[in-house]
# Entry
Amino acid sequence: MNPLIHELFQKSRFLSYEVNITLKKHDLYSSQWSVLNCIQIHRKMTLTQIWKYLNVEAPTITRTVNRLADLGWLEITPGKDRREKFVQLSARALQDFPAIKASVMEFEDRMVSNLSNEEEKLLLELLQKIR
# Structure
């Protein structure tokens, strides 16, 4: 295995584990946070828009969105077509979002604290070249 790919896999697992620890105090997992953050950015989205934006399989997004709705984080409203559903943050999510985002931002800052701004920018540029 290419050592670079191996290291990327290792760091990906490490980051997932660590962000889940950070999100635990908010009773969320990283996959749920990704959906909430995506919807917060775009305000109101269809399930199709969410899975395309996050590059995740449709059934996975459907399950995650339904779970978040059951937990009171999201509101789902029907669209014009009975198959179309719009998703937006609930009042609870809008209220709690700033605290959750602050926790995630602190986590992100901690994870890149050993990198200079220039190194962080370079790493991002290099990762974007991987296809």
About this structure: The radius of gyration is 17 Å. The mean pLDDT is 94.
